[in-house]
Amino acid sequence: MISYQQFNIHSDNIVECERTLDLIKIALADRIESIIGPRGSAVCPIFQLRLKNQKEPIHLTFFPGFSRWNEDILQFIRERGGILREAADVIITGVQSHTEVPLIAIEYCGALPAGNQAWQRSGRAYSFALARIPYLYVAELGGYELDANRDRKAPRMPNPAVPFSYLSYSLEQDTPVLPIFVTSPGADESSRLAHADEFADYELIALIRTLLLNENPNDIYELLRRKVLALVRKRAAASRNGRTLTPQQWESAYDALKKGQSLVEFLVHNAQLSWSKIAYIASLTASAKALMQHAARYAIGLTSSELPMCIIPRTNRPEFASRVSALYRDLPIDFAQWLARDEHLVICWVMGFKPGGDDARPDRGLPPLSRMLVGQDHDLLSVVYGPAPTATWPMLQHDPKTLSQRNGLWEAILAVSDALLVDSATDRVTKHGYLRSHWEAAIPKPVSRNFLIKPSPTRIGENDVDTVLHTLLGRCAGPDVYEGLCNPPGGDWSGISLQPPERTVELRWLSLPRVSGADTKRPDHVFQFFGIVAQPIILSIESKETATAVEAGIGPRLSKYIANLITSTASIERPAPIHPWRHSTHRLNPRNFLFASAVAFISSSQSDIDSVMAKAKADLIFAYTFEANGNSCTICLIPSGQTGRLLVNYVAGLTITGTGISLRRD
C-alpha cells in the first residue's frame, strides 16, 4: 500500500534527479501505466506516474541543487541529529499533509574509491544514520581506471575496514547505512564473474520498490549486508598475512556484532594485529614521532596493521598514558587522568593538513570512519599532527564552536571524538590535550520539527541553466537528438556517449581527460543532432551563470576536445540501452561529423549577448531570462554562421508545451 502520492527528489543537480527517476521507473516497471512529464516549473520539473490498480497517480518533483530553497533540507537533517555538514547526492522525501518525511539518502559513485579516498564520504553515512535516515552508497564495481594514454590500469580497491564500518554502524544505530555495489559499465566478463557475489543491482531496484510501495525492506537489507561482507572477505583474502583480519575473522567479527559485542572487544580478545604509524610529512615534530612510537609499542591494529587507527587495550592504557604524560609535560591534569582510564582506548591519527595548510579533504572522513567501526561506547582520541594554519590554534583554544562552524575537518574531528591531542609544527598556543567538554557546546542538539520545501529557488543560478538545457534538448527534442553528456554543478565527468552516423551502437568514453590536446576544454553538455544535414552535428556546450563568466575563444576549444576524444578508442559500447555494456574497439572518424559549439548563460542584456558572441566564437548562444520564482524561462537563441542557423531552426521548432520553457529567435 502506497503511503505517499507525492515524492520530492532533492539532489545536487538535474543528473542525480534523473538517475533516481530511472531507478524508480525500473523498480515500478510492472506497475506503471503511463508517465507524463516534465511539466510545471522550468527549474523544478514534475513527473506524473499512473500505476495499475491505483486511482490516484504518483507525482515526483525534482529539486536540483541544495541550500537554495525556502527551507534547507540539509539544515533540517542537522537539526534532526545529523551533526555534520554532509550532503548526499539525493534525498528522497515523501510528502503528506504539507510535511516532508526523509525516506532515504543516496550517494552515487562512479567507481569504488581506494586509498584514503575510500573513507572520504564516511562522514555522510555517520551523519545520516544519526538522523535516522537510511543511506546508500551506490558504487560501481568491476571497472578499470585509465592511464594518460587511455590504457586500462589494474583496479584499486578499498581496505576491507571501510565497507565493514557500514555494517558495524548500521547494527549499532539500527538504521541501514550500506554500500551497494552495482556493475560498472566498464566491467568485462572476468570482473563480472569475479564480483558476482557482491553485485547488488537487483537488490538496489528491489529496495527502491519497497520504499515507494511501503513494503518491508528488512529481507533486502539483509541480502545487501551479506554482499558487503562478501566483498570484505574477498579483500581480506587478497591481502598479505598480518595486514588485516583473515576472511574468517571478519565473518566472526560480524557475528559478534550481531550478538551485541563491540568490535573493539572482539579484536582485543580474538585478533590482535601488530600496528605502527608512519607519517610521510616533513613537518612532523620529534614529539609526534615519539608519540607514534609509543603507540606502536602498546597498540593493536583496528582491523589493520597499516590504517591510521589503533586500539590501546585497557591493560596497556595506564603505561601508555604515563609515556604520553612524560612526553608532553604541560598536559592538563583532567586530560592526563582521562588518558589513564581503565577502558580500551581507540586512537584516530589525523594528518589533516597539507604542507601549505590546506585541508587534506579525505581526512575529514577518518574520525567518522573510526567511530563507525568502534561504536559510541568506546573512548576515541583523535591525534592531529599536520601543519594546520597558525590561526587554527587560538581558535581551538578560545572558540572551538566557531572553528567547527568554519571548517568541515574540525567539525568532523570534534563531533566524534571524546578527546583531542594536538602535536603540530605550527602550534605555539595549546597545551596539547583537550577533553570533549571543551567543545561540547559546538555540537548541535537534535530537535524535532516539520518542514515543506516549495519548488521556487531563492536564487537562480547555473544549476537552473543546466536543468532547462537538459529538459529542452535531452527530453523534449525527440529521438533525432541524442544526449551524450550532462554535467551540471556537482557532476562527476564519468563519461561521454556518442553514436556513429548509422546509429547502430552507443559508444562511451570513460575516465575523461580534463584536456585532450592543446587548446581544448571539456564541455558541460554534449548533444548529437541527426537528420538536419547529411552529417550528424555534435554540439558541445559550456554553461555559465553569467555572461562575464564565459571564456574567450571557448567555442573552438569545446569542439576540438570532442574531435580529439573520438579519435581514441571508445571504452565501452552497447547496441541499445536495454543491453549490457561491453568493451569496445570502436573509433569514430571526425570527418563523418560536423562540430558545433554553444554557450548558455543568464542575461537579457543585448550588450552581454554581443560581448559573448564576439569573444566566445561559438556557433550558438542560449541566453536565458527567468521569472523571479523560476517557474518560467525564456531562451533567446542567437546563431553565428551556417551551422548555428541550422541548429536554431531546429531547436526553435521543438514542442515544449507545459515545461515552463519558451523560445525566442534573435
Mean of all residue-level pLDDT scores:
93
| Order of strands across the main sheet | 2-3-4-1-5-6-7-10
Principal-axes geometry comes out as globular
The helicity comes to 25-40%
End-to-end Cα distance: 52 Å
Please count the beta strands (DSSP E, at least 2 residues each).
27
How many domains make up the 3D coordinates?
Answer: 3
Gyration radius, to the nearest Å? 27 Å
Query: How would a crystallographer describe the biggest sheet?
Result: 8 strands, mixed
Helical stretch tally: 20
Class computed from helices, strands and strand pairing: alpha/beta
Task: Estimate the strand proportion.
Answer: 15-25%
Low-confidence stretches: none
